[in-house]
């Protein structure tokens, strides 16, 4: 019913975020608690539903199929369909930017609040998006999952690999779209 009334009775004492759903799950952003562990790969999650969705990556289950493009996915088909319709129901109250997925708006709001809930356990640097922390951790671990096929040099991201390939291995060649 709260989705209809707009009532948001749960307010975070750390960042002030107000929500209509489980405050316990939100607080795990700040504490880093991830009590749900995948029995296949050991990856941990702060929300049980995220673990359940992740388990589909091991089983290969893709229960949602798009009637427009045929894409089969393991997660929310409603959000996928918004790619085709352009429907963006979630508007930022600060700048007016619109988003098709509520979670994307919530992440965007951190650009206004300055909140950085994801902290590096090694150096303490904060990040507003968890994937940026994951990439940052590779600096400390030395992990480089993307390798140049020409010289075997490793990179943290595909973007950095492509930049390297263009700068080092193209020797002035131009890339044109056909």
Mind explaining what this structure looks like?
With 178 residues, this protein is α+β, with helices and mostly antiparallel strands. Among the domains are: 1-60, 2-Layer Sandwich (Double Stranded RNA Binding Domain), CATH 3.30.160; 144-178. The chain has helices at residues 2-5, 23-31, 48-59, 77-85, 102-113, 130-141, 158-169, and strands spanning 10-11, 18-19, 36-37, 44-45, 64-65, 72-73, 90-91, 98-99, 118-119, 126-127, 146-147, 154-155. The strands form six sheets. Strands 1-2 form a two-stranded antiparallel ribbon. Strand 11 (146-147) and strand 12 form a beta hairpin. The relative contact order is 0.06.
In short:
The protein is an alpha+beta fold and 178 residues long. It is built from 7 helices and 12 strands.
The gross shape turns out to be globular
Kindly report the name of the CATH homologous superfamily of the domain at 1-60. Classic Zinc Finger
Q: Which class do the helix and strand fractions yield?
A: alpha+beta
Mean pLDDT: 85
Can you write the helix and strand succession as a string? HEEHEEHEEHEEHEEHEEH
CATH hierarchy: architecture of the domain at 1-60 = 2-Layer Sandwich
* Rg calculated over all Cα atoms: 20 Å
Helical content band: 25-40%
